[in-house]
Amino acid sequence: MFDKILIANRGEIALRVIRACREMGIRSVAVHSTADADAMHVRMADESVCIGPAPASESYLSMARIISACEITGAQAVHPGYGFLSENAAFVQALEDHGITFIGPTSDHIRIMGDKITAKDTMKALGVPCVPGSDGGVPDMATALRVAEAIGYPVIVKATAGGGGRGMKAAHGASELEVAFRTARAEAKAAFGNDEVYLEKYLERPRHIEIQIFGDGKGNAVHLGERDCSLQRRHQKVLEEAPGPVITPKMRAEIGATCAAAVARIGYAGAGTIEFLYEDGRFYFIEMNTRLQVEHPVTEAIFGVDLVREQIRVAAGMPMSFTQDELEINGHAIEVRINAEKVPGFSPSPGRVRMYHAPGGLGVRMDSALYAGYAIPPYYDSLIGKLIVHGRDRPEALARLRRALGELVVDGVDTTMPMFRALLQEPDIQNGEYSIHWLERWLASQFG
Ligand code: MV4
User: Fold this and answer.
1) Which of 289, 434, 436, 441 to mutate to test the pocket of ligand 1 (most atoms within 8 A of CB)?
2) Which CATH number fits domain 207-447: 3.20.20.70, 3.90.870.40, 3.40.50.620, 3.30.470.20?
3) What is the mean pLDDT of residues 287-310?
4) Which ligand 1 atom minimizes the distance to the CA of 165?
5) For 4-103, CATH number?
6) How many Å apart are CA 340 and CA 346, to the nearest integer?
7) Distances 292 to 18, 31, 105, 251 between C-alpha atoms, Å
8) Which of 48, 210, 310, 446 has the CA that lies 20 to 30 A from 123?
9) Regarding the domain with residue range 132-201, which homologous superfamily does it belong to in the CATH classification?
10) How many CA atoms lie within 13 A of 59 on its CB side?
11) pTM for the whole structure
């Protein structure tokens, strides 16, 4: 096992990793920018290294500076958290070259899943159900029109280098497709320097259901059920829950086994998420994320496992500490993302936090790096906390969430808390009846 791990991240996820390290008797190293000198992750780690100025490109995204920090402190492994360098194959390669362990999958697996066409081809070959669409890339307009006729409108044009909603255009007929194809290509070229696009049948009212998988890198893998992350605004998740309100045990077992077998076959190491669109009882693969996700705590809550601990074990060459048979769902969990943003525009609201009070009690987990007097810097993501509740069933989790939101105090900056208080009054939310378009429609109806 490692003696010392460097956490190449900040905020709540850095604390999350430091906590796992501490429980495992592993020393932790925080890295930080000059803007984060007073950040909680710096205080909570055993050691810290300043790696550069405020812009992430010169600090949290600088491979050279992070590798230097490993050499200076003697850290044997790096946990990347989410975002920043967590899905950067070149970073994993560079760490390997320096004899430092990346806590996550191999650079090859990251590269395969980072290219959406290759990811889809790979998953299809492994028996994972995919959205009907083009076989690989669509090189020109004539091919696009032919493929669209074959699969039927509406269709969606997606960038292979995209993901998270960037470089996508839907089309309901041939003339719309001509525009969609051209703009998707141009946007992909500008955003990613890669204009390769592919075509899929456009699903009109799906849910976003993602399956948590975990592999030991030696050909063994398990699944930890699904999360329903359909409540999103501009491709940013707002609320996530597990299990999914409409997923039956039979469906879970089936898609879960398919996903676990697929990642076992490729020798996948560590935590991963296989994203699906779910409509009319069917799952359609869209993307795979090769990192620990923001919303992992809802899965931890219902399975009673520490996913970061498992990531560290597997990276150290140890087996996972559970088998599929030992994984059992207990109750229901919901996470809401507390952002320092002003609703309804969702403009960032950085600044000094005057008062902070975290909720507590049975079934409540608050993952946050906030403290009273802390100044939220304007340079990074606006996520300031995740409130996760766990109950014996969905109604109990909802009641607990309402209660915990009532206890949470964040004074001095605007947050998304008022939106959640309103959201929890909605019958559709109470009944779990929502698709990927529900939240944007609701926001428009509430705030015009
Ligand atoms: C789709 C789709 C409908 N049909 N693919 C958006 C982000 C990226 N992960 C995939 N996305 C979508 N792909 C087909 N074939 C609709 C979306 C989509 C979406 C997906 C998940 C959550 C929220 C969404 C919001 C708008 C569009």
Assistant:
1) 436
2) 3.30.470.20
3) 98
4) 7
5) 3.40.50.20
6) 9
7) 15, 19, 11, 24
8) 310
9) ATP-grasp fold, A domain (3.30.1490.20)
10) 21
11) 0.98
